[in-house]
Amino acid sequence: MEHSRGALVRWSLVDVLVVLYALVPVLWITSLSFKDPATFTDGSFIPRAWTLENYQGIFDNADFTRGLINSIGIGLIATLIAIVFGTMAAYAVARLDFPGKGALVGASLLVAMFPQISLVSPLFQIERALGLFDTWPGLILPYITFALPLTIFTLSSFLREIPWELEQAAQLDGATPFQAFRQVIVPLAMPGMVTTAILTFIFCWNDFLFAISLTSSNRARTAPATISFFTGSSQFEDPAGSICAAAVVVTIPIVIFVLFFQRRIVSGLTSGAVKG
Amino acid sequence: MIRRSETDEKTAERRLGLWLCAPAALIMLLVTGWPILYSVLLSLQRYDLRFPKERAWIGLANYGAVLTDGFWWNAFWVTVLVTVVSVAIELVLGMLLALAMYRTLVARGAIRTLVLIPYGIVTVVAAYGWRYAWTPETGWLAGMLPEGSAPLTERTPALAIIILAEVWKTTPFMALLLMAGLAVVPNDLLQAASMDGATLWQRFFRVTLPLMKPAIMVALLFRTLDAFRIFDDIYVLTNGAADTSSVSVIAYHNLIGGLNLGIGSTMSVLVFLTVAVIAAAFIKGFGISTPGTQGGRR
C-alpha cells in the first residue's frame, strides 16, 4: 500500500508524541541519577556535570543490594510456583470437565478484583503469629495468590487455542499419552507459559504495599520498598541522588523484558483480561 | 461394558480436574478467604498493639468510629475522585493511543514496545520521577510554575499530580485492552459505512464504538477496581499530607503507623465491601460477561 508523504509525516509526529509520553518521568529520573550533588538542584534537564557517584553509592549500600537479592529471589520463586499451580489449574479449566470448575473461575475472578489493602491487616497479624512476618515466604505467599488469577486466565485462553488433535495423532503413531503430552503439547504451550511467567514476575517486582507492610528489616524487604526507606548518610543529606540511581537500576530488568517480549506481553495482557 | 468404561473415564477426568485445581484453589482460599474472615473478627474488637491488655469485643463500635470520622470520609471521597477522574481520562487517552497504535504507518512494533514501558516500570519509581519533577529546586516542571509554589504541598494541585501519575502509568494498559477491542471491528463494515457516506466521526461513533462495547466495559471494570486500590503513587508523592490520603493509605497508616489492628481491620473490611459493590454494579448493571465465565472447552 502506498502512503502519501503527508500521512507519513503526520504519523511520525504522532509516534514522537507517544514515545515522549512513554518516557517522560523515566528520562527525568535518569538525568537526576547522573547529576553531581553540587548541580543536583540546578533544574537543568541534562546534567551539567556527569557522575557515577550515585550508582557507586547504592551498590555499596548493603540494604539496597540485599533488597535487589530479595526482589529477584522472591520474584523468581513466586513466579515459578504460580506458573506450576496456575498451569495445572488452567489445563483443567481448558480441557477437563469436573464439578466446581465454575467456582474456581469465579474465585479467581474475585481474587483478581480483591483490594490488596484488605489483606494487609489480617495478614500482618496472621504472619506474626505464624512466624512468617519479615520472611521470604511471607511475601511469596501473597504474591502467588495475586498472580494465580492472571496465570489461570492467560494460560487457559492460550491452551484453548492449541489443536489437541495433535495429541491423539501422536498417540496413534505409538506414543504413550505422557510422551504425546510432553513432546507435542508442552512445546506448543511453552510460549504461553513464558508470557505468563514474565507478567507474573513484573507483578511481583512492582509490588509495594505488601513489601512495606509485611517486612520490618532488610531480611525480606524488596528493592522498591528499600528505595522508599532510603535516608541520606547524615540527616542533612538528601537521599534523592541515591533514590534516582536505585530507581534506574530497578527499572532496567523490566525494560529489557519489555523490549524482548513485547509481542508476547501484549497478547498475554489482552487475552488474560478480555478474552478469558 | 462400553458404558461402564465411559463412566469410569468421566470419573477419572473429574478426579484429575479436581486434583489439578486443588493447589491453586487452596492457596487462594488460605491467603484471601481466611484472612478476610479473620479481619471481620478483628474489626469487632478493640485491639491496639500498643495496649494489648485492653483487647476486648466491642461489637460494631469500630465501624461507628470509622464511619463518623472526618479523615475516613475525606480519604473515601479522595479515592472516589481519583478513581473517577483518572479512569475517565484514561478511557479517552487510551482510545487515542489505541487508535494511534492500531493505525500507525511508521515503526508500529517500536511504538507498541515503548508504550508498554510505563506498564512495566515500578509504580514507586515512576512516582519518584513525578515527585522530583514537581519539587521546587530539583523539578523541571515545578521550575515552570511561579516562584515559590510547591504544588505537592497544596491539596488541589497535589491531587492533580496524583491523577497525572496514575493516568501516565495505566493508560497504556487501557490502550492495549482497547486495541484488542478494535481488532474485532471488521474492516469491511467500516468500508461499507464509508461508501454510504459516513464521515470519520460517524464511523467511529456508530460502528466502531458499539462493536467495542464489551471490551470497553471490561477495561473500565478492571481499571476502576485497580484505581480504587491506589496506594503507591500517593505514598510517594504526598504520603497523605494535605488531605490527599486514599482509603488504602489511611488504612495502612492506622495499621503500620498506629498499630491499631481493630481500626485497621475495620477499614480493610469497608474497602472490601466497597469494591464488592462496585464490581457487582458493573456486572449486574452493565451486563458484563466477565472473563472466563463463558467457560466450556473446545
TrEMBL record, chain A:
It comes from Thermomonospora umbrina. Belongs to the binding-protein-dependent transport system permease family. It comes from the Bacteria. PANTHER family: INNER MEMBRANE ABC TRANSPORTER PERMEASE PROTEIN YCJP, MALTOSE TRANSPORT SYSTEM PERMEASE-RELATED. The chain crosses the membrane at residues 12-34, 68-91, 103-124, 136-159, 180-203, 240-261. One of its GO terms (cellular component) is plasma membrane. Its main location: membrane. The keyword Transport applies. The keyword Transport applies. Keywords: Cell membrane, Membrane, Transmembrane, Transmembrane helix, Transport. This is Carbohydrate ABC transporter membrane protein 2 (CUT1 family). CDD domains: TM_PBP2 (cd06261). One of its GO terms (biological process) is transmembrane transport. It is a multi-pass membrane protein. Residues 68-261 form the ABC transmembrane type-1 domain. InterPro entries: BP-dep_ABC_trans_perm, MetI-like, MetI-like_sf. It is found in: Cell membrane.
Automatic annotation (TrEMBL), chain B:
The keyword Transport applies. Pfam families: BPD_transp_1 (PF00528). Coiled coil: none annotated. Signal peptide: none annotated. It is found in: Cell membrane; Membrane. Residues 76-282 form the ABC transmembrane type-1 domain. Keywords: Membrane, Sugar transport, Transmembrane, Transmembrane helix, Transport. InterPro entries: MetI-like, MetI-like_sf, Sugar_ABC_transporter. One of its GO terms (cellular component) is plasma membrane. GO terms for biological process: transmembrane transport. It is a multi-pass membrane protein. PROSITE patterns: ABC_TM1. The chain crosses the membrane at residues 16-37, 75-102, 114-134, 158-184, 204-222, 261-283. Belongs to the binding-protein-dependent transport system permease family. PANTHER family: GLUCOSE IMPORT SYSTEM PERMEASE PROTEIN GLCT, TREHALOSE TRANSPORT SYSTEM PERMEASE PROTEIN SUGA. This is Multiple sugar transport system permease protein. It comes from Thermomonospora umbrina. The lineage of its organism: Bacteria, Bacillati, Actinomycetota, Actinomycetes, Streptosporangiales.
